[in-house]
Amino acid sequence: MKTAVSLLILVFVTTLMGKTTLSYRERKKQLDGKISLVLDINDQLKLETDSGKVSIESLKKDLEETYRQGKRPEIEKALNIAEGEVLFSQRKLCTPLEEIATNLYQKAMGQWILIEGEDKASNKKLEWDTKEKIQRYLSMAKSEKDHARDFYLSGNYHLSLHTYKRSIVYSLMSMRTQKTDIPEEYTVADQVWVDPIWQSANRQKPSSIREN
């Protein structure tokens, strides 16, 4: 517990030091990206994102209103409050997102093991490029999940969330390629995050598919 608190203090102090070199516009731009990611994850996965003080939606609204008024002291105060709130919200969100990424990867891998076993015993084999895509998606899902954990431990919660999201996308891509049913609780994320990539990938030749 002490280690976690010390890490949060270190991250917050580092953030404060960096503020002196960034303009209000740059700080707000960075903050908008972090808020958008938190809201996106919450919307698609229905997770709790608030730090317990102010909702992210209210925080965003208040920040926009203060920024439009253009008064420097108020903008500085609003940015300071928002940056602290978002930092704690990001850290809080990493834990359930890690659980989801791990759960989906395990489901996708378990299903692939079953399919692979059936394929070996069947006269009708899966196409080589289908196997290659499934294995590549699974490999990337695990790799991104592991990297996300490293980012979390280093205090980079924004990048950790972004990377957990990518792991989830790769696991869902693997499940689609396996023709496995997507778990109901992840169908919204599948439609919003994965479907555009899936549609684009299937318009390309299998050998040229690259996912973002």
Strand content: under 5%
Tally the helices.
7
Separation, N- and C-terminal Cα atoms: 36 Å
Shape: elongated
Can you walk through the features of this model?
By secondary structure, this protein is an all-alpha fold. The protein is 78% helix and 0% strand. It contains 7 helices and no strands. It has helices at 2-19, 24-45, 56-69, 72-121, 128-153, 157-177, 187-201. It is elongated, with a radius of gyration of 20 Å. The two termini are 36 Å apart. The model is unreliable at 16-20 and 206-212 (pLDDT under 50).
Overview in brief:
With about 210 residues, the chain is mostly helical.
Secondary structure elements and their pairing?
Elements lengths: L1 H18 L4 H22 L10 H14 L2 H50 L6 H26 L3 H21 L9 H15 L11
Protein traits:
about 210 residues; mainly alpha; about 80% helix
